[in-house]
Amino acid sequence: MSAEVLEQWLLREQEMKANTREFGLARPDQVKGRTGLEIFQAMISGELPAPPITRTLGFNLAEVASGRVVFQGRPAFDYYNPLGTVHGGWYATLLDSAVACAVHSTLPAGKTYTTLELKINMVRALTEKVPLVRAEGKIIHAGRQVATAEGRLFGPDGSLYAHATTTCLIFDLPGAA
To answer: Which of 49, 62, 87, 176 could form a disulfide with 22, with the two C-beta atoms 3.0–4.6 Å apart?
Structure first.
């Protein structure tokens, strides 16, 4: 395990927790006129609430740039399946968040999306012995109506636990006009 990388990730986790003022949903007036990237930047700064799922499943938005989003999470015993490892649904939630938000980060104001397809390959078991993991999503193609992205779930030592792809449908945000 890379102690230096883990230390950086732990510091980022402290920063994220300090900036998270509340969990909830942003009101329409809080996001109107903002691009996808601006919405995520406001979440990171604490101006907008963090989504409730991040509290429930122990992960946070760590980094965002246009076409690239990183979530960071702690595998925990609470997420174990009967086999004694982290449930695949936890992997899927982090990767779905990363790849879909990579698409969202490219959208102009007034546009939104929905996931059409999500494909995940889990390549290594994950336990609470791994202190933190990151799910990084990157845009592959951002079209006018369809976008695709790919993602990887990895540990601080670079070990790959899963990878994913998504296809998203892009459309006008209702009431944005």
So the answer is: 49
CA distance 135 to 53: 15
CATH-assigned architecture of domain 3-172: Roll (3.10)
What percent of the chain is helix, strand and coil (3-state, nearest 5)?
Answer: 30, 35, 35
Tokens of 159: 């070990």
Q: What's phi and psi for 113, nearest 5 deg? A: -155, 170
CB 92 within 8 A of CB 83: no
Nearest Cα to Cα of residue 153 among 175, 125, 177: 125
- Indicate if the pLDDT at residue 92 is higher than 60: yes
Domain positions in the chain are 3-172
| Full-model pTM | 0.94
Averaged pLDDT of the chain: 95
- Contact present, 46 and 93 (Cβ < 8 Å): no
